[in-house]
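Check these lines:
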Amino acid sequence: MNNSKEMTIANLISAYTDKLNQGNAPTINDFLSNHSDIAAEIRPILESIIQFRREATCPSLTKAESDAIFTKIQEKIRELSAPMQAVVTHQGAIALDKRPDFLILLLHFMDQIWGNTKLVKLLFLLGKEGHCDQFVPDYYGHYAYNYGAFDKAVPQDVQALIQAGIIKKTAPPSKKRNQSELGIPDKKQVEAVYELTDKGKKFAQSLIKSSQSKDPKILARIQDIVRKHGKKNVDELLYYTYNTYPETAEKSKVRNKYLKPGDTNPTQEPDGGANV
């Protein structure tokens, strides 16, 4: 993390802490709306601050509490940056031994993935049905959340790989394409398109060689998931995961829309224009 970025994060943390003390802090989503480039990194830090604040007995933070917060912040930054540093700084033979490796390989075989929801769900299926979670100790541990299976490590890893120049995140083109071929319904709003950079493509080729040495089944399993689910749109993925793994829909905001026993086809209605 460079000095400029550290300063930006420090200033944002200070500003949010001040707003907490004044009693007029916005939601984290609103606060980070203009800082999408570092939102994935700073969000868990702000969440830690809020949690610490809830545990504090004083109406405003004392110096001791502030010191404790910044200790937690430093620990959180080290925790978030360590896995990616190991992935992107290795210059020799690249071993396939970390969860982001599967994110990179998934993008390699998909070419592009439109939207966060599709990315998260495909990684979930890669572990659940492709059993790729057996190849690394830290594979994504998806849990029930607002839109089904989720792991906050996914957006964190994506952001770190973007900063490392492995993944490219772009806005959808203004001219509409046939979105159904890209895995999203025509009326959905997609906030981002993910694909590998040239550097990421070279990295993926190294991972492919490593995976062939480690276990030839790895690539076959990824390709199988891409073949079975890669062309599904978000509605279809939600319908499939909710009804195949209903435990992932327990906390879903759209549970009643997709979890419908007896239905043979997923609904095609847009989810209120929500980003996917």
User: Anything to note?
Assistant: The radius of gyration is 20 Å.
